[in-house]
UniProtKB/TrEMBL annotation:
Signal peptide, first to last residue: none
Cofactor or coenzyme needed: [4Fe-4S] cluster
Keywords: 4Fe-4S, Iron, Iron-sulfur, Metal-binding
Protein name: Ferredoxin
Function description: Ferredoxins are iron-sulfur proteins that transfer electrons in a wide variety of metabolic reactions.
GO molecular function, a single term: metal ion binding
Record domain 4Fe-4S ferredoxin-type: where: 310-338, 339-368
Length: 376
């Protein structure tokens, strides 16, 4: 039985957050004294200010640090943001996201060691071993400090998807290239969840992101914190709050198929889902197109799939030619011509890494009208 605590939290007042987290940790019977050193893993996708709702708010990280420090546990804050994994980039992300300030204020080490260790993965993915950021080796537990956001490829990102950020820079890109089917990608996330098995998951939904997440969406105040001893259960609670059905949520759908998730095994504590639920959260749904398989001639099926699949496109007057998308595109489908990005759709695998990481929001997602309006 796992426990999910849902708590209304109006703003990022550090005392308020601390108070909420303290209550939640008591409810899930989290005993920090059992651990020597914990890895705190916020979602630091890219260099964005806290108010842009792309990264875990520093006040949430600070609240947890202040609680754990009282127990004299060693801590380290670490993540591998999108793009190359090097000290310069880490420093830029830590500064802009406000995490560096929090760590300096609380005297908590921030990771600058860009080496990695290999872990063997439990589960069903074809990937049997993975490199992860070095601090994982030195700690006896991981805390997933996630941000509640939509995601162009995964539909939703929270506590489990946050673990993908433990894979160092370039290897994340390589995996996107090797694993193109959404179900297989979910298998990898579930294997990471089973293997890393975070001791604690905290989802920052005070200001969540809706629409074109995980970086180009809009901040949406949900005023909630979700805390759990089970990352998958925490994500399930978040999905219920944003009115995302199990069928439209690839991670939970796959977890159910694999026998990893049962709704009846969750004990909910705190504010009820109904009291915080929103029915109009903008979610980039990915409709399963397999229903057309076998009912149409093969060439028509391929054609329909092609025109119905959302695609990235470059907004030329916003593109600064910075090459970030070129560097992060797994199949090298992007080139820079006349200081503008250009996508080769024959190579594009629709992973949306470019959309996720463009610092100027110059890559948007084009969805077919029929897909948008009729299949919803
Ligand atoms: S699309 Fe974005 S990331 Fe790519 S070159 Fe233009 S500004 Fe840079
Ligand atoms: S162009 Fe964008 S969506 Fe297409 S493969 Fe490259 S990074 Fe992925």
């Amino acid at each position: 039985m796992s426990t999910v605590v849902i708590l209304k939290c109006e703003d990022y007042n550090p005392e308020l957050i601390c108070e909420k987290l303290q209550y939640a940790l008591k409810m899930i019977d989290f005993r920090p004294e059992n651990y020597k050193k914990l890895l705190l893993k916020p979602n630091l996708l890219m260099s964005k200010k806290p108010e842009e709702a792309t990264t875990t708010h520093p006040a949430v990280v600070e609240g947890l640090i202040n609680i754990l420090k009282k127990e004299n546990i060693d801590l380290i804050v670490a993540d591998s943001p999108g793009g190359p994994y090097n000290v310069k980039r880490l420093n830029a992300v830590y500064e802009k996201t406000g995490i560096k300030d929090v760590c300096e204020k609380t005297g908590t080490p921030l990771n600058y060691n860009t080496s990695s260790i290999e872990i063997e993965l439990k589960g069903e993915s074809k990937i049997k071993a993975l490199p992860v950021i070095y601090p994982y080796k030195e700690c006896d537990g991981v805390v997933s400090l996630a941000k509640l956001k939509t995601h162009g490829m995964a539909v939703y990102t929270g506590a489990v998807k946050n673990l993908y950020g433990m894979i160092p820079g370039g290897y994340k890109v390589e995996l996107h290239f090797r694993i193109r089917e959404i179900e297989r990608f979910m298998d990898l996330l579930l294997d990471m969840y089973e293997t890393i098995n975070p001791l604690l998951s905290i989802i920052d939904g005070v200001i969540a992101m809706e629409g074109d997440g995980p970086s180009q969406g809009t901040g949406r105040k949900l005023g909630i914190l979700i805390i759990s001893d089970d990352a998958l259960a925490a994500d399930y609670a978040a999905s219920r709050i944003i009115n995302l059905s199990k069928n439209d949520f690839p991670l939970i759908k796959r977890a159910i198929e694999r026998g990893l998730f049962k709704e009846e095994s969750i004990r909910f504590v705190g504010d009820s889902i109904d009291s915080v639920k929103v029915n109009d959260f903008k979610i980039p749904l990915k409709k399963d197109m397999t229903f057309i398989r076998g009912i149409l001639p093969r060439f028509l099926e391929i054609y329909l799939k092609e025109i119905m699949t959302p695609k990235p496109y470059v907004v030329l007057n916003q593109c600064k030619g910075c090459s970030e998308c070129y560097l992060t595109c797994p199949p090298k489908a992007i080139c820079i011509e006349d200081k503008k990005a250009k996508i080769d759709y024959k190579k594009c695998i629709k992973c949306f890494c470019c959309h996720e990481l463009c610092p100027y929001q110059a890559i948007k997602i084009r969805r077919n009208f029929i897909y948008e309006k009729l299949l919803k």
